[in-house]
């Protein structure tokens, strides 16, 4: 029983990371039709910035804030500097994001080395607590809590603000939004900022979860982020929230009860099966 | 005619290597309704989209004296254009109220006028636009343009297409009201409606301007309207349908 609880909470913690990655990916693709392969790089930027700040005695909350801010700025710079000039050239846009996705990890290993760097986990978050007989690491709760806060904030933003309204409309029909006199490119920068913030936050929290940061973390989390986005329906934050729970749990349980590594595979198999049954998962903006 | 509000000269549009407009000339009067006519595929929708910068175009489009070729769509629209696209362009995942709110540009949007003309929109404010009938969606699309008192031109692309006769009347009344306040460029196949609303008309054929002049004159000339508009039995029936 305690194993089931531990696996469950750990799965939810992983799912929380996936959600933070996937929500931004999903919004960016939904609005701009850009598959942002640089999203993992934004996560790594956030992870290293948080790690750097935490190692320079910032204190964890402040370090996380710093990492998120740096990731947000990086995302805005990416949109303004690379994505926007390539507007109307989707192939070049994707190539540019792939390039950034490859260059950033290389840059990080050039500066701080390819090896994992130990993340200074603060005492309160290093401990465990008891839940239905299971000894569960506190950091899982932090991850799930952060994802819930981001989910709530995104729903409020999308549902209650004018900018959120523009984003939702743009996901449906970008040209019509401009035909109403709205500069939709501002919404592009905004979703990049939001997606970058969430990814960078995921980076900092991944440092907490894994106890270390390394240059490849971003790319591996990005893969599962994509799986969650496709399952949840492109452009749908709510769909991503449901899918990330499913993916996190399936992966954890399958990895534990079968050979390690099979969990990762089962997630991909699950995605393939879902796409066969409900291909609209791929073009979920209509569903 | 006093100097036109919108003055299109030699408008050309090429999409995916295909020449769609070969040089359209079009004047929209500074008051009343100007009809843009032509058979299916003549290039009416593309002309409108070219004017708004929704498709790449060359030539000259002067609006209120300023050249707008080279501007982006939102810059052009912000100069005071309300647009009712052919497919209505309603956001189906948003509510009626959200669709209208998105279109607000004036600090004091004219909801009183919109709700007076289309009381249904008030009752259905919280309903998802995707669950509306075609006629109700068209009301949303037209309501969006009426909301902004600052509009100086309304462009409506076949606003009565596919609507029930009762709704056609409602839409016609709304267009008439709009035309009292602001010039309208109306793309329309319903000739009864054109006869009722439009003072001037421009006819396109194969991506070019084939005729321009007073609407009544063209519609009175059976021979000419037949060659230009392909008015046969079917069009006559449609025209009568709009009179209810
Ligand atoms: N995006 C496009 N790509 C290719 N061809 C198009 C496109 N839009 C319109 N056309 C073609 O251009 C011609 C004019 O279309 P359109 O402007 O919609 O005519 P109308 O509104 O007068 O019926 C048609 O032959 C149509 O098939
Ligand atoms: Mg048309």
Short description:
The complex is a heterodimer of chains A (287) and B (244). Chain A is mainly alpha-helical. Chain A contains twelve helices and four strands, in the order H-H-H-H-E-H-E-E-H-H-H-H-E-H-H-H.
Your description of this structure?
- The complex is a heterodimer of chains A (about 290) and B (about 240).
- Chain A is mainly α and about 290 residues long.
- Chain A has helices at about 1-30, 40-55, 60-85, 90-110, 125, 140-160, 160-170, 175-180, 185-210, 215-230, 235-255, 260-275; strands spanning about 115-120, 130, 135, 210-215.
- Chain A contains twelve helices and four strands.
- Chain A has a two-stranded antiparallel ribbon with strand order 1-4.
- In chain A, strand 2 and strand 3 (about 135) form a beta hairpin.
- Residues about 280-285 of chain A have low confidence and may be disordered.
- By secondary structure, chain B is of the alpha/beta class.
- Chain B has one domain: P-loop containing nucleotide triphosphate hydrolases (Rossmann fold, 3-Layer(aba) Sandwich), CATH 3.40.50.
- Helices cover about 40% and strands about 25% of the residues of chain B.
- Chain B has helices spanning about 45-50, 75-80, 95-105, 110-115, 120-125, 135-145, 165-180, 190-195, 215-220, 220-230, 235-240; strands spanning about 5-15, 20-30, 35, 55-65, 65, 80-85, 155, 185, 200-205, 210-215.
- In chain B, the strands form two sheets. In chain B, strands 6-7-8-3-9-10 form a six-stranded mixed sheet, with helices on both faces. In chain B, strands 2-1-4-5 form a four-stranded antiparallel sheet, covered by helices on one side.
- The radius of gyration of chain B is 17 Å and the shape is globular.
- Residues about 235-244 of chain B have low confidence and may be disordered.
- Chains A and B meet through helix 7 and helix 8 of A and helix 2 and helix 3 of B.
Question: Layout of SSEs?
Answer:
The complex is a heterodimer of chains A (287) and B (244).
Chain A: H1 2-32, H2 39-55, H3 60-83, H4 90-112, E1 117-118, H5 123-126, E2 128-131, E3 134-137, H6 138-160, H7 162-172, H8 174-179, H9 184-210, E4 212-213, H10 217-232, H11 237-257, H12 262-277
Antiparallel strand pairs in A: 1-4, 2-3
Helix pairs in contact in A: 1-6, 1-7, 1-9, 1-10, 1-11, 2-3, 2-4, 2-9, 2-10, 3-9, 6-7, 6-9, 7-9, 10-11, 10-12, 11-12
Chain B: E1 6-15, E2 18-28, E3 33-37, H1 44-51, E4 57-63, E5 66-67, H2 73-78, E6 81-84, H3 96-103, H4 111-117, H5 119-123, H6 134-146, E7 153-157, H7 165-181, E8 184-187, H8 191-197, E9 198-205, E10 208-214, H9 215-220, H10 222-229, H11 233-241
Parallel strand pairs in B: 3-8, 3-9, 6-7, 7-8
Antiparallel strand pairs in B: 1-2, 1-4, 4-5, 9-10
Adenosine-5'-diphosphate (ADP) binds at residues 15-16, 18, 20, 38, 40-46 of chain B.
């Amino acid at each position: 029983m305690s194993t089931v609880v531990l696996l469950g909470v750990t799965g939810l913690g992983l799912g929380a990371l996936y959600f933070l990655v996937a929500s931004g990916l999903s919004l960016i693709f939904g609005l701009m039709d850009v598959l942002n392969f640089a999203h993992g790089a934004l996560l790594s930027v956030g992870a290293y910035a948080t790690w750097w700040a935490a190692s320079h005695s910032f204190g964890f909350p402040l370090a996380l804030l710093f990492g998120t801010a740096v990731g947000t700025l990086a995302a805005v710079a990416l949109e303004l500097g690379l994505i926007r000039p390539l507007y109307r050239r989707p192939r070049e846009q994707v190539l540019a994001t792939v390039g950034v996705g490859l260059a950033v990890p290389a840059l990080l290993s050039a500066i701080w080395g390819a090896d994992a760097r130990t993340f200074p986990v603060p005492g309160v978050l290093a401990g465990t607590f008891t839940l239905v007989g299971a000894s569960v690491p506190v950091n899982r709760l932090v991850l799930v809590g952060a994802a819930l806060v981001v989910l709530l904030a995104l729903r409020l933003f999308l549902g209650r603000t004018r900018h959120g309204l523009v984003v939702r409309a743009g996901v449906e029909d970008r040209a019509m939004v401009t035909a109403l006199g709205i500069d939709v490119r501002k919404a592009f920068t905004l979703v990049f900022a939001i997606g970058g913030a969430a990814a960078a936050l995921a980076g900092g929290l991944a440092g907490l979860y894994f106890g270390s940061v390394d240059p490849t973390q971003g790319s591996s989390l990005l893969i599962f982020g994509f799986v969650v986005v496709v399952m949840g329906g492109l452009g749908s934050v709510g769909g991503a929230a449901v899918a990330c729970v499913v993916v996190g749990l399936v992966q954890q349980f399958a990895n534990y009860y079968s050979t390690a590594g099979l969990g990762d595979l089962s997630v991909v198999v699950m995605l393939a099966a879902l796409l066969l049954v409900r291909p609209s998962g791929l073009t979920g903006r209509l569903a | 005619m006093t100097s036109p509000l919108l003055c299109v000269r030699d408008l050309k549009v090429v999409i995916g290597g295909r020449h769609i407009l070969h040089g359209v000339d079009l004047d929209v009067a500074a008051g009343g309704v100007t009809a843009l006519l032509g058979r299916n595929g003549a290039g009416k929708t593309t002309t409108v989209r070219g004017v708004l910068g929704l498709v790449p175009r060359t030539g000259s489009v002067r609006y209120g004296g300023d050249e707008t070729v080279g501007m982006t769509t939102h810059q052009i629209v912000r100069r005071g254009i309300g647009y009712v696209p052919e497919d209505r362009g309603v956001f189906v995942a948003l509510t009626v109220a959200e669709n209208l709110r998105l279109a607000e540009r004036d600090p004091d949007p004219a909801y009183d006028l919109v709700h007076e003309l289309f009381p249904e929109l008030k009752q259905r404010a919280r309903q998802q636009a995707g669950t509306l009938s075609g006629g109700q969606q068209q009301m949303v699309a037209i309501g969006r343009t009426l909301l902004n008192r600052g509009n100086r031109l309304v462009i409506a692309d076949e606003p009565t297409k596919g609507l029930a006769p009762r709704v056609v009347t409602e839409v016609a009344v709304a267009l008439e009201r709009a035309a009292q306040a602001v010039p309208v460029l109306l793309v329309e196949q319903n000739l009864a409606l054109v006869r009722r609303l439009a003072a001037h008309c421009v006819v396109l054929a194969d991506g070019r301007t084939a005729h321009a002049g007073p609407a009544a004159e063209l519609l009175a000339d059976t021979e000419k309207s037949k060659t230009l508009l392909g008015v046969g039995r079917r069009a006559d029936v449609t025209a009568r349908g709009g009179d209810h």
